[in-house]
TrEMBL record:
Database matches in InterPro entries: DUF2264_C (IPR049237), DUF2264_N (IPR049349), UCP014753 (IPR016624)
Domain of life, per lineage: Bacteria
DUF2264 domain sequence ranges: 12-350, 358-570
Spans traversing the lipid bilayer: none
Record-given protein name: DUF2264 domain-containing protein
Length: 606
């Protein structure tokens, strides 16, 4: 496997500049003869192949345009001008296709609009008049159609920024309507929900805030710019709790294949001159994340970014992921548009703040534990129903920057179910049910509660309690019939040659490798075991080991409880498991202190 980022230390602006060219070069052999399309794979997304190949063409511009805007070199502008001219030509065989409402082409035109705004001299000015008219007409066609009622509304805004900079006038009323509509997605403390669904995930930093900060920096709209900057500042002080000291970010929700697009938020703060934290800290979050990604085996054999997360893995993909989709990661390079003497580049990189106690994050429905070697987010209150694996991506009890989470490779084989970070249930010993959504979710101090139904007639009430380096889960299961249950701790990478140890006793399972240890301790009658889940199901490691508890619940109401810990191996011993909290005391605490997790309060948020 070729890693174009191998050896890049990501310490300086020059290092980041070099990464743009290194990531782009493997794409060159895949440009069509017309230069309008980048053909990376026959694997399909839900949109047509012409749109997928436009995606491969357009998404690298998120990094290329800032590179040249900041004085960096890029040798292939002629290719992009030729491709832009041919792709917008209805008479050319590589025409990108007519645009309709809610069309993937609109997404990719945002990258072109942005590039015209900051790299007009390279992409637009050398074109002849006929090509300019054709390109403008295509962009106008895209912005005139309707967009998804979500962060997509920013795409019309970005297209318009490019058109206006090139002297092309459009009716501003549709843009203004979308900018007004975007306000309805804000849910407080800088967080947004992405559309009508209850999700506050990876899209928030590299979509809502990223586009909003670009608009703040480039539009001249002072009122909205002030609002976007203020929200981004609030959000920075919250989203920093998704980052571990090694730079890894929390894998949570959909669209993980965009990878280091997440770093784009920290770069966008700089682009819009928002010193939400000291510049040295902002720079630290940015560069550490890029360094972490540079170490991951996320490329195909020729150095092209793969679909996946820490490694190539179609299992985690959504139906809108084409082979060109991962190049939204190029959004990370936005601060290259800034000069080298900007405070973001001129300051010394600083480490993150330390947090000894758990931190409640009500808007995404999380409690963050800053633990040795990783961050764990205890979670309740989110869902996203449409794409594959969304119960695992949104509904688990715990997510880790080091151990990620697993998707179920076979929901019709309960004995092999991983259920890391989750309670799984089965009425026939074959099919698997888990939390897909919650009827209620509350946060009280640093504790979370949820009520959910794996079956229509089965109610589970779950309390999540951070306790030192552990967290405790309590589940009250009320069922009219007998059910089999399984609950997993954290899945750790599985080494070759049996280089691990297992310690299984009554109610306790521990697995240890040279690098990691993972433990689950039960406070009930379930049996403990260690399993090796199906390969390619975990977002961080292709093969894993997982401690579990398995048992049954009879008809009636049963209380299940366990404590979970995973961390890098150290010279010290694993601390003893905490005492199990009293569930009646938890009920009283939530009655007194609990409040609705914000993503549930849809009516109040408009």
């Amino acid at each position: 496997m070729q890693n174009p980022l191998a050896g890049n230390q990501f310490r300086t602006r020059a290092d980041v500049q070099r990464a743009v060219g290194a990531l782009f070069s493997p794409l060159l052999p895949h440009f069509s003869a017309s230069a309008a399309r980048v053909r990376l794979s026959a694997a399909a997304a839900h949109f047509d192949q012409a749109a997928a190949e436009l995606e491969g063409f357009a998404r690298p511009l998120w990094g290329i345009a800032p590179l040249v805007a900041g004085g960096g070199d890029f040798e292939h502008w002629a290719r992009y001008r030729e491709g832009l001219s041919n792709g917008t030509d209805p008479d050319h065989s590589d025409y990108w296709g007519d645009i309709s409402d809610i069309d993937q082409r609109q997404v990719e035109l945002a990258a072109i609009g942005f590039s015209l705004r900051i790299a007009k001299g390279q992409l637009w000015d050398p074109l002849d008049a006929a090509a300019k008219r054709r390109i403008a007409a295509y962009l106008i066609s895209g912005r005139e159609h309707e967009f998804v009622d979500s962060n997509w509304k920013f795409f019309r805004v970005l297209i318009d920024l490019g058109l206006a900079h090139c002297g092309v006038e459009v009716d501003p009323r549709k843009r203004e309507a979308y900018l007004d509509g975007l306000e309805g997605f804000a849910i407080g403390n800088g967080w947004y929900r992405d559309g009508p669904i209850r999700s506050a995930d990876h899209y928030i930093p590299f979509a809502f805030h990223y586009y909003g900060l670009i608009y703040a920096a480039l539009s001249g709209d002072k009122e909205r710019a002030a609002r976007y900057r203020e929200r981004a500042g609030e959000f920075a002080r919250s989203i920093r709790h998704w980052y571990a000291p090694d730079g890894s970010a929390l894998p949570f929700g959909r669209s993980l294949t965009y990878r280091f697009a997440h770093a784009g938020f920290w770069g966008a703060l700089a682009f819009a001159s928002v010193e939400a934290l000291p510049w040295g800290q902002i720079k630290g979050y940015y560069l550490r994340n890029l360094r972490w990604w540079a170490r991951q085996p996320m490329f195909d054999r020729d150095g092209v970014l793969s679909i996946g997360y820490a490694y190539p893995n179609l299992m985690i993909s959504e139906g809108y992921n084409s082979a060109g989709s991962p190049y939204w990661a190029m959004k990370a390079f936005l601060p290259l548009a800034l000069p080298g003497d900007h405070p973001f580049w001129a300051c010394a990189e600083e480490g993150p703040e330390t947090f000894e106690s758990p931190v409640a994050l009500p808007e995404p429905g999380m409690v963050a534990q800053h633990l040795p070697g990783h961050v764990v987010a205890l979670a309740s209150g989110q869902e996203y129903a449409r794409w594959r694996g969304t119960p695992e991506k949104y509904g688990k009890f715990a997510y880790s920057t080091r151990y990620g989470f697993s998707l179920e490779g076979n929901d019709r084989h309960f004995p092999s179910a991983a259920c890391d970070g989750m309670l799984g249930l089965s009425e026939d010993g074959l099919h698997l049910r888990m939390r897909e959504s919650s009827e209620a979710a509350l946060i009280a101090g640093d504790r979370i509660y949820a009520r959910w139904r794996p079956y229509e007639d089965v109610i589970v009430q779950t309390w999540l309690v951070p306790t030192g380096r552990w967290h405790v889960r309590l589940h009250e299961v009320t069922t009219p019939r007998r059910l089999e249950v399984v609950e997993g701790g954290f899945a750790v990478p599985k080494p070759d040659f049996g280089a691990w140890s297992e310690a299984v006793s009554a109610g306790r399972a521990e697995v240890a490798t040279a690098q990691d240890v993972s433990v689950i301790v039960g406070y009930d009658a379930r049996a403990a075991q260690v399993i090796s889940p199906l390969s390619n199901t975990n977002v961080m490691a292709a093969r894993t080991l997982l401690p579990q508890l398995r048992g049954v619940v009879e008809a009636g109401t049963t209380l299940l409880a366990c404590a979970v810990l995973a961390e890098p191996r150290s010279d010290g011993d694993v601390p003893p498991a905490p005492e199990c909290p009293d569930v009646d005391e938890l009920r009283r605490f939530f009655r007194a202190e609990g409040r609705v997790v914000s993503v549930f309060d849809m009516k109040a948020q408009g």
